[in-house]
Design the sequence.
């Protein structure tokens, strides 16, 4: 039942992303808060609802953005998949896993956006995108990863107390 | 009166007279030194007394001072909040006044003001979200402006909000003309948010500072909306067209309130364009 917290939290993350995070620019890139939040949530050991969270995030961000929904569906689901894959392998170093998922997820999401927009006819130069959007966004995502991971770890302990195993 | 008491009386009178004369300044520098010694002694006693008084009455004063300090701090923070609120209102009023001036100077258009409440979550796209939607008769394709110039056009609408494609978006293209060069061109956005002119005829003489306005061609935007100024021109003889970089008239990083032109309905000319086999 406590999983309902996903909705207000994701709504808040999307609102923050649209109103504040998108204004904190490094060159032309900015952080992707829903992506970091999903990665941090999926990396928590007891969490079983990461896929549901990813789906909810896709609906919310896709509703707001001009990017096709498919980009968010594939991108966020891949982030959750990567997180769960790494969580089972490097569970002893959660921050390392968080950084790895954030790094790989950001690169994948950015490349996917680039490819889809190019297919749709938007003229982009790969060099510009890499230098002005992808790398700055990657750096900002890595910076946001630590505090978001800490918050989501505490939230996971509240949603899944140690006595309850789902 | 015996001789001893008379001697004492005379001594007191003489000493008193000296003191009175000294205080009256009749002894010159000696008098001033005397005064300064007296004043110094009095100051020493006074300061020690005040210190002692403070020490004795301090506990009561600290309590009252602390409560007074807390009251004043609360008052200061309240006033600071009021100052911030008022500054924000002044800024909004200034923006709205400029927009009202703009709408009065362009009475042929009907405007609806809207606040910018967000931006596209993807850094690849340059879109803003405004707080007016179909409930306010906003429709897809309506141009969005500020008093400085063209901002973009409505891309999607829901009941109480709309998404606006900025002219800086990489997928945006606006048909324009240059006021002095009397030639048409296309203004295109980029991933960095810079805008540039393309498809300028090689015969056209374009110079930095030329004003760029919408031409109205294509039916997407009304004519004669200001877009910016030419910064520099790139002319290569082996290319079909010239290109130019443009300084936009609107500061897209600080968009707060915009105007939607509600009486302009874009024309879809797609059916009129020749089909490629």
Sequence:
């Amino acid at each position: 039942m406590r999983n309902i917290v996903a909705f207000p939290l994701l709504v808040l993350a999307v609102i923050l992303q649209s109103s504040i995070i998108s204004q904190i620019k490094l060159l032309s890139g900015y952080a992707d808060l829903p992506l970091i939040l999903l990665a941090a949530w999926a990396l928590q050991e007891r969490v079983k609802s990461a896929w549901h969270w990813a789906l909810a995030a896709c609906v919310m961000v896709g509703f707001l953005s001009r990017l096709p929904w498919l980009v968010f569906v594939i991108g966020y689901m891949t982030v959750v998949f990567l997180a769960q894959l790494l969580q089972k392998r490097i569970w002893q170093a959660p921050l390392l896993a968080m950084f790895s998922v954030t790094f790989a997820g950001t690169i994948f999401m950015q490349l996917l956006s680039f490819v889809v927009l190019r297919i749709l006819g938007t003229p982009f130069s790969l060099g510009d995108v890499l230098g002005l959007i992808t790398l700055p966004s990657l750096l900002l995502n890595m910076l946001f990863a630590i505090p978001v991971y800490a918050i989501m770890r505490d939230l996971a302990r509240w949603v899944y107390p140690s006595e309850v195993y789902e | 009166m015996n001789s001893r008491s008379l001697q004492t009386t005379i001594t007191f009178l003489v000493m008193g007279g000296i003191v009175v004369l000294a205080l009256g300044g009749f002894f010159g520098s000696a008098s001033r030194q005397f005064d300064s010694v007296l004043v110094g002694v009095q100051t020493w006693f006074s300061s020690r007394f005040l210190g002692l008084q403070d020490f004795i009455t301090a506990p009561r004063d600290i309590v009252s001072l602390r409560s007074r300090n807390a009251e004043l701090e609360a008052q200061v923070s309240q006033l600071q909040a009021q100052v911030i609120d008022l500054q924000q209102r002044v800024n909004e009023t200034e923006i709205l006044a400029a927009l009202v001036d703009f709408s009065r100077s362009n009475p042929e258009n009907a405007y609806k003001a809207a606040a910018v409440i967000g931006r596209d979550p993807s850094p690849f796209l340059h879109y803003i979200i405004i707080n007016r939607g179909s409930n306010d008769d906003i429709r897809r394709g309506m141009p969005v402006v500020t008093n400085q110039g063209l901002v973009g056009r409505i891309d999607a609408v829901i009941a109480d909000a709309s998404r606006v494609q900025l002219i800086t978006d990489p997928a945006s293209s606006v048909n324009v003309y240059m006021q002095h060069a009397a030639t048409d061109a296309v203004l295109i956005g980029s991933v960095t948010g810079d805008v540039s002119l393309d498809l300028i005829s090689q015969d056209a003489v374009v110079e930095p500072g030329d004003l760029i306005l919408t031409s109205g061609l294509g039916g997407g935007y009304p004519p004669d909306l200001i877009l910016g100024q030419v910064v520099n021109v790139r002319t290569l003889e082996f290319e079909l067209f010239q290109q130019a970089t443009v300084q936009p008239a609107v500061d897209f990083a600080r968009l707060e309130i915009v105007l939607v032109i509600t009486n302009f309905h874009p024309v879809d000319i797609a059916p009129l364009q020749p089909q490629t086999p």
Observations:
- Residues 29-105 of chain B form the longest helix (77 residues).
